[in-house]
Amino acid sequence: MAKQVEIKYTQLFIDNEFVDAVSGRKFSTINPANGEVIAEISEGDKADVDKAVDAAKRAFARNSKWRKMDPYDRGQLMHKLADLITRDLDYIATLETRDNGKTYASAVGDIEAGIACLRYYAGWCDKIQGNTIPTGDTYVTLTRREPIGVVGQIIPWNYPFLMLIWKWGPALATGCTLILKPAEQTPLTALYTAALAKEAGFPAGVINVIPGYGPTAGAAIAEHSEIHKVAFTGSTEVGHAIMAAAAKSNLKRVSLELGGKSPLVIFDDVDVKEAAEIAHDAIFVNHGQCCCAGSRTFVHSKIYDEFVKHAKQLALAKKVGDPFDSKIDQGPQIDQEQLNKIMDLINSGKQQGAVVEVGGNRIGETGYFVQPTIFSNVTDDMRIAKEEIFGPVQTILKFDTMDEVIERANRTNYGLASGIITKDINKALEFAQAIESGSVWVNCYDAITSQAPFGGFKQSGIGRELGEEGLNEYLEIKTISIKVTKNN
Ligand code: ADP
């Protein structure tokens, strides 16, 4: 089933070298399309994180090559890395599809989006400016915006390459040095991109990649007293643990991009077929494995039945199978654990009285495939309306008024994204002002670009990624005050 691809790197990347883990341990990375082992990967732990931190500290030391580098040249290095990723795009996308199970076309889309993001941040390197501040005649006061230093980055498995670039882009642009832990399910593209960073000419120790498990390698990063910032993308539950570890260790800065249960609200003045298409993509993209997935589809009662009919047609037309086959729309879920979680939630929906319009079952026994599933007659109290499913499951809820739908949409601890589909600009603006979420998409969904901030309200996160706000998460502000001595 899987396209063959040579696996070139399986060891930890520390100080520009591929090395075994101190413990000598390895773990398997699995092809989710068939459950087979792709490769044995060195398993990093605290001892390896310590080594990587030492390398990152040396790279960040005063007068190091990286610290002395002209910011323009730092930007050129990032562009060079983007060039090498472009050269090897097919190889990286193939690795990603093999390790993650997303379709090859969507892997290509992720790599292209990553290249654009890296180039966006490359452009920032020589534009990170401070201020001069009026403080009277006695002092000249100015600010410098300086890199935080050694940073740790922990990323999930759903967009392995793209999440790496979202993390590396601002860290490198600001001049930090970094230790990244990819998810244990998907280490391959991170290791390959580390090799490209060396080829591009990044000095030793600027970039370090430690594959391994969360409670060991991940926790060692979150607890490390010489890492001064941790950036995390993953579950809300682990986000709590990261913040607690940061508080207990050295008060390192924390940015978190966590879960969601994002509402997409569809009013009765729309082209119902078009709205159903937007809502379909909002939930089914990346097999539902998307933190900002439009996972609560609120549909006005006047068009509810017609909407469900179109949504069903779209789900029925979806082809599930080998992610390397260009006719396939949906590959496998990431692993057995996620499959079990999705099936448990689907079963809860059935038991709590939602109507299965389409799907509702696993496909076959090999690989982790799930039928595109649609539930209608969903009510707010059901688990499928409250918990993040992270699978190809659309839950369609009914509403009547703006006030009602805003209140229900906001009745969640999450607040990552939201959407509204309507022809009425006043409805769109009223919703955009009232909804508690970091992104609001009007007549579209997932309109994410490198230039615009992305992140969550409430328990969907702390801080923002992308845009200038994403850069600020990697900067300290230093105020310099210079006394003016008068000559007379
Ligand atoms: P998901 O539910 O999407 O797998 P997780 O939050 O479990 O998300 O994992 C996201 C990332 O966090 C992965 O790289 C994982 O290894 C890491 N991780 C999991 N547990 C911890 C932990 N206790 N400390 C630090 N990192 C962790």
UniProtKB/TrEMBL annotation:
The active site is at E257. Keywords: Oxidoreductase. It comes from the Eukaryota. Residues 19-480 form the Aldehyde dehydrogenase domain. One of its GO terms (molecular function) is oxidoreductase activity, acting on the aldehyde or oxo group of donors, NAD or NADP as acceptor. Belongs to the aldehyde dehydrogenase family. PANTHER family: ALDEHYDE DEHYDROGENASE-RELATED (PTHR11699). This is Retinal dehydrogenase 1. It comes from Camponotus floridanus.
